[in-house]
Amino acid sequence: MKAEDITSKIKGIIGREIFIYDTVSSTNTVALKLAGNTSEGAVVLADSQEKGRGRLGRAWLSPPAVNLYMSVILKPDVDPQNITLITILSAVACADALRRTTGLHISIKWPNDLMIHDRKLGGILTEIRTERKGILFAIVGIGININTDLQEFPHDIRDIATSTLNETGRIFLREEITAEILNEMDRWYKFLNKMDRKPLLDRWKELSSTLGRQVMVSTAHETLNGFAETIDDEGMLILRSFSGQVRKISSGDLTELR
Fold this sequence. Notes:
The chain has helices at 3-7, 27-34, 84-102, 164-168, 174-193, 197-207, and strands at residues 18-24, 43-49, 68-74, 107-109, 113-116, 119-131, 134-144, 214-218, 223-231, 237-241, 246-249, 253-256. It is α+β, with helices and mostly antiparallel strands. It has a seven-stranded mixed beta sheet, with helices on both faces. Strands 11-10-9-8-12 form a five-stranded antiparallel beta sheet, with no helix packed on it. It is globular. The N and C termini lie far apart (40 Å).
């Protein structure tokens, strides 16, 4: 990918400065090192990752020249307790951008998975650095399977993963999808900085595949079962157990039960 093929389509501050690498350990690792000396909205892109990371320390398959591996550096003026909203807006931006560029009916599984036909197309990993006054910066890592053939996935994830190529039979320009995502992120980021959460939360709910379903959520301390009722103003999942108890969950590994 060439930076100018993306920056020529950029409309806001996110994506004006882009660093592109052939291979990195992970784009989040590089972005964490660059964040203190770059402008807000700077983006790290890589053609492949040697140690791509997903949530909960999971590895993210990152073959060269086919998919999107990207990290965005943000410096939001929000309280650390609202950081889940960064992931919320990033998921909405990715889902809307992918719907527009691919025609696929992308949905969002709480908190950060991009889904199509109950298979995972992509994911988001948000990492932050804080100080006493608040957030220094947030790194939003985005991995999306674009032009990977299903047969190239490891056997153990073929039934749960997919790509835009697998779903449509078409090869897509990664530059076009990248620019569309960055423009969507910029648009929703303005809402967040104004603390105008309602449009963002409403759109997330419209795109959600989780709400209204029976789910199992594994947190660091327990496993919970119940109905995913909604998300609150901070992006926390509201789970109603089968006994009627209501819980707020900030993070966890969610499985949608059939």
